[in-house]
Design goal:
This protein has 232 residues and is mainly alpha-helical. 61% of the residues lie in helices and 3% in strands.
C-alpha cells in the first residue's frame, strides 16, 4: 500500500497543495497525493475530498477560463465557468469512470477540456433554443422551451423574485446545472449547513416561482391553480 493510500484526507489535501505549488513554480513535484485525493473525491465520491479538490484546482481553472479566447463573449463571470467545469468534471469521472484516467496529467487535461466545453456550450445556448428546468419537484413539469431573449428575461424575473444572492446561487445550481443537495453540500464556499437545509430552501423557492404570474406567462404555463399543469 502506498504512502498516499494510508494518508488522511486533510493531510492529502495539504500535501497536494504543496506539490501543486511546486508544479506552478516549475519545480520537481510528486503527483501521488493529488492522485489519491482525486481518487477519493471522484471514485469514492467523498464530499470532504471533493471540497479540497475544488479548492486546490479552482485557481488553475480560473486561469484557463480567463485565457480562453471566447470568454469575453459570454458576459458571464469566470467563477461561473469555473464552477460549471469543476461540477461537470466530477459528474463525468465519478465512480468507475475514474479508472480510465491513469495519471494526474490525464485528469488535468480532461479538466481543461471541461472549461472549454462549458464556455462553448454557453455560447451555443445563447444562439439556440434551450430548456431551463424551473422546478424539479416530484410531479411538477415546470419546464419551458426558451429562445435566447426569453431565457434572459426569465432569469431576470427569477432574480427579481429571489433578491437574496444565496437564493439566486441555489437556483442556478439546481435549475441550470442540475445539481442535487447531496452534491451542493460538498462544494466549496457554499453557505448551507446540511442537505435538509438546502431542500427546505428549494421548496420555498419553488413556491415563490410557481406563484408568480409573470414568470408563468414567460414560461407559457397555465394559471397556478391549474393542477393539470403543476402539481403541489
Amino acid at each position: 500500500m502506498s504512502l498516499a493510500a494510508q494518508t488522511s484526507v486533510n493531510e492529502l489535501a495539504r500535501r497536494c497543495s504543496e506539490e501543486t505549488e511546486k508544479f506552478y513554480q516549475q519545480l520537481s513535484s510528486d503527483a501521488q497525493f493529488c492522485m489519491e485525493l482525486l481518487r477519493r473525491a471522484l471514485a469514492e465520491e467523498l464530499s470532504e475530498a471533493l471540497t479540497h479538490v475544488f479548492a486546490i484546482y479552482q485557481r488553475q481553472v480560473l486561469r484557463w477560463v480567463h485565457s480562453h479566447s471566447r470568454f469575453p463573449e459570454t458576459s458571464e463571470s469566470a467563477d461561473y465557468f469555473a464552477h460549471t467545469a469543476l461540477s461537470n468534471f466530477f459528474f463525468a469521472l465519478r465512480g468507475e469512470r475514474f479508472k480510465h484516467f491513469p495519471s494526474l496529467q490525464h485528469l488535468l487535461a480532461y479538466l481543461k477540456t471541461c472549461v472549454h466545453t462549458a464556455i462553448a456550450q454557453h455560447l451555443r445556448d445563447q444562439r439556440n433554443a434551450r430548456t431551463v428546468p424551473l422546478s424539479q419537484a416530484q410531479g411538477a413539469g415546470l419546464e419551458a422551451q426558451l429562445d435566447d431573449a426569453n431565457a434572459a428575461e426569465i432569469w431576470a424575473q427569477i432574480c427579481r423574485l429571489l433578491p437574496d444572492p444565496q437564493d439566486q446561487q441555489l437556483a442556478r445550481l439546481v435549475f441550470l446545472l442540475d445539481l442535487k443537495p447531496r452534491h451542493i453540500i460538498g462544494l466549496p464556499n457554499q453557505p448551507w449547513q446540511s442537505e435538509r437545509e438546502i431542500s427546505l430552501r428549494l421548496y420555498q423557492i419553488r413556491q415563490i416561482l410557481r406563484r408568480d404570474r409573470r414568470l408563468r406567462s414567460l414560461c407559457n404555463l397555465g394559471d397556478a391553480s391549474d393542477e393539470t399543469t403543476l402539481q403541489p
